[in-house]
Design a protein that fits this description.
With 67 residues, the protein is an all-alpha fold. Helix content is 76%, strand content 0%. The longest helix has 32 residues, at 35-66. The protein is elongated and about 75 Å long.
């Protein structure tokens, strides 16, 4: 058990040194068309609105049937 803990501590101490040797990769360039984001936003808001309308109509019909 002591060997495992000792080996784990040695490994954790060596991690910052290994991280400094890693190659620096430049971030990818974003040349994306914003149409996908706009379409997603419209569909997302539409689905939320449709769900709210469905719940509103369902509650309205439930109150009308209870009278």
């Amino acid at each position: 058990m002591k060997k495992i803990v000792s080996g784990l501590m040695s490994f954790l101490i060596a991690l910052p040194a290994l991280a400094e040797d890693a190659a620096v990769v430049p971030p990818p360039q974003l040349d994306a068309n914003p149409m996908g984001l706009i379409l997603f936003a419209l569909v997302f808001v539409g689905m939320i609105g449709g769900f709210a309308a469905y719940i509103w109509v369902k509650e309205r019909n439930k109150k009308g049937a209870g009278k």
